[in-house]
Amino acid sequence: MRTLAAAMVLVLVASACSGGSDSAELQALGEKVESLEAEMSAVAPAPTIATTAVPTTLAVPTPAEVFAAVSPSVVFIEVPDGVGSGVLLSSGYVVTNAHVVGHFPTVRLFTSLGEVAEVPVHARDWHSDLALIGPMPFDELGGEIPAVDFGSSATVAIGDNVYLIGYPGEVESQPEPAMTSGTLSRRRLAPCLGMTFLQTDAMIAGGQSGGALVDATGQLIGISGLMFTESNFALVLTAEDVSAVLAGLDEGSGSLSTPEGSGALRQSARVSNADSAGYLVTVTEEQPLLSVTANSPDGADVWLHIDTWDGLIPSWHWSQDEVDYIWDDLYALDEEESDLFSVDAFDDGTMESLEVSLWPGVYVVSTGHFSYTTEEIVVTASNPLRPLEDAEPPGEVLALGKAVTGALNHIQDVDSYRIDLQKGDTVRIQMVSISDSVMSLYRNDVLVASNDDAGIGLFGDGAEIIFEAKATGRYDLFVVFLDWVPGTYVLTLDLAATDSPTC
């Protein structure tokens, strides 16, 4: 614009000079030019130079930096029958999976500062598969290790990178943590269980249960616990659900606890139909021979089992003059070998007894009966028996439109429920849990329906029975787990025509 104005001034000045005008005319022309410049500036103001703001971003740590920051907060856990991982909290306690600590009262820990022996298990919650260990005796270590930083799983999007830090397959005398990486592939809501799981291809190997799943910044977004090797993915309980459970566990509560005390050589329990009583027993190098007897003062037909903690019969047995190797589970053994660890004379009132030599370790002694009543069973052993708690009353009524939460706390544990139906009632019974569940429905001691995997629940292995009652009266429902891990379940009863089940 100023170039044009200047040109006009030159034109005007030239015009004035050629016409012989005096200074008054030149002054008038100058005033016109100034007036014209002002008008032009108002119509088209001087342009401004546009600038682009450069956003400031925080540097994302490298995977190596994430591992260096988080791994000191992750500890190695050892119990008599296995190993696992745990994560240190700001409270001075360690959170891990309940199935890692089992029913053991204490665990042994390895940290970045060294070994810590005999740390107590504070509380367990089998429903969420979480447990609290501690408090940590940092004075024994001569220092402290950093606590993990809790984040939010909601900030991680599908496809984001995640890291799993724990102790997979650790066999060294001084364990060292490891890290696997993957992506967040899905969120799985378990409405009946009231929990949300993160699905990731960051693999969970044996020993990594209870480890930390963190985001790309090193914030905790979940505690690992479930691995599906056939499908190549893991499920991790979200940090939000972990925090909610910890609020109760911090008070020493849980869905299922373990009785205190070292146990006694003689134990007595009231056992309902198809249920069982369970006991932990420790076999030592000094006393490898375990003798157990069970009988019913009421004259019931009693059975007796000795199992490893993982639900199989003890892996091997030796006699005084030979070694007998048992390579497979109970169902693949012949009758002579299975009798080493399981006995039932199928005769009411007969005392059952087992006497076997075992590797040092912790075993589960289970006993029960087949009467449709509640009977007393007395168990006597050569080693102290530590009773395992059973939370459910026998024969609890399962009513229409109601949800019941129960727990199967040890190998061979069976829970029973009473269902009252009218002839023609068509009902849907569902059992949902973290473990693989099985249901059987009886009428007058006759099996009328059963189911294992029905494609429901978090993993599709929940049980479901759709049944039409052929007669009015009482039906008995028995529920078990096929998995060895103790845990809780949710049981519901609805009319089959109901569009919206109870959970």
Written description of the protein model:
The chain has helices spanning about 1-20, 25-45, 65-70, 100, 140, 240-250, 335-340, and strands spanning about 75-80, 80-90, 95, 105-110, 115-125, 130-135, 160-165, 180-190, 195-200, 210-215, 220-230, 235-240, 265-270, 275-285, 290-295, 300-310, 315-320, 325, 340-345, 350-355, 360-370, 375-390, 395, 400-410, 415-420, 425-435, 435-445, 445-450, 465-470, 475-480, 485-495. The protein has about 500 residues and is mainly beta. Strands 13, 14, 15, 16, 19, 20, 21 and 22 form an 8-stranded antiparallel sheet that branches. A 6-stranded antiparallel beta barrel has the order 1-2-3-6-5-4. It is flat and about 135 Å long. The termini are far apart. The model is unreliable at about 1-20, about 45-50 and about 315-340 (pLDDT under 50).
β-strand number: 31
Helices and strands: which structural class? mainly beta
Number of contiguous helices: 7
Count of domain modules? 4
Beta-strand residue fraction: 35-45%
CATH architecture title of the largest domain:
Beta Barrel
Which of globular, elongated, flat, extended, rod-shaped describes the shape? flat
- Termini, distance in Å? 76 Å
Residue windows where pLDDT falls under 50 for at least 5 positions: 1-21, 46-52, 316-339
CATH topology-level fold name of the largest domain: Thrombin, subunit H
* Overall mean pLDDT: 79
The CATH class designation of the largest domain is Mainly Beta
Sheet with the most strands? 8 strands, antiparallel
Helix content: 10-25%
